[in-house]
Design brief:
The chain is built from eight helices and five strands. The protein is an alpha/beta fold and 174 residues long. The protein has a five-stranded parallel sheet with strand order 2-3-4-1-5, sandwiched between helices.
Length: 174
């Protein structure tokens, strides 16, 4: 298959400026954005070579910098994959800077058959990351369109908060 662009490929990443601008505008206006696309649509490249470098450079808020946490893939052990800073996210008034977390290949929560209790706890930790007291943190979730549809239609057992984010905070790649 195709290899995704990574952070080191930022200078070679071009042609998605409109989509990049639209997603950054959404991330400036709302805490959670869910990007969905078909396999091979370039969502991982868009995140790694476009969004993350722009957020690191101050594209969301040039005054209040965002600390970009390591890119996360749930894999078979989603709780171990989640950066400790996301788990321990201090309320905004205690934090020195806002945090930005990207979870790519979100469908791995189910396709890699992580235990249900761990999947549900992972979703709860994401909710806590942007929940009460953490209104400045931002969360970008990236998944396949078929996974997004399965969350909405009830195929996957998810928390109400998670389903609401996937349903109402989505951006579908063209």
């Amino acid at each position: 298959g195709l290899t995704a662009f990574g952070h080191d490929d930022t200078d070679n990443f071009f042609g998605r400026e409109t989509v990049l601008t639209q997603l950054l505008d959404r991330l400036s206006a709302q805490q959670v954005v869910v990007v969905s696309g078909r396999p091979g649509s370039g969502s991982s490249s868009l995140v790694s070579s476009g969004i993350i470098p722009k957020v690191s450079a101050g594209a969301l808020d040039p005054v209040a910098r965002f600390h970009v946490l390591p890119l996360t893939w749930p894999g078979t052990r989603p709780l171990e994959a989640l950066p400790q800073q996301a788990i321990d996210a201090a309320p905004a008034e205690d934090a020195e800077e806002a945090l930005f977390l990207v979870v790519d290949n979100l469908e791995e929560l189910f396709s890699f058959q992580a235990p249900e209790a761990e999947r549900l706890e992972f979703m709860q930790l994401l909710e806590n990351f942007v929940g009460a007291g953490n209104a400045v943190n931002r969360l970008l979730l990236v998944c396949r369109t078929t996974f997004r549809e399965g969350v909405i239609d009830g195929t996957y057992a998810v928390t109400d908060w998670f389903r609401d984010q996937v349903t109402h905070c989505s951006y579908r790649l063209p």
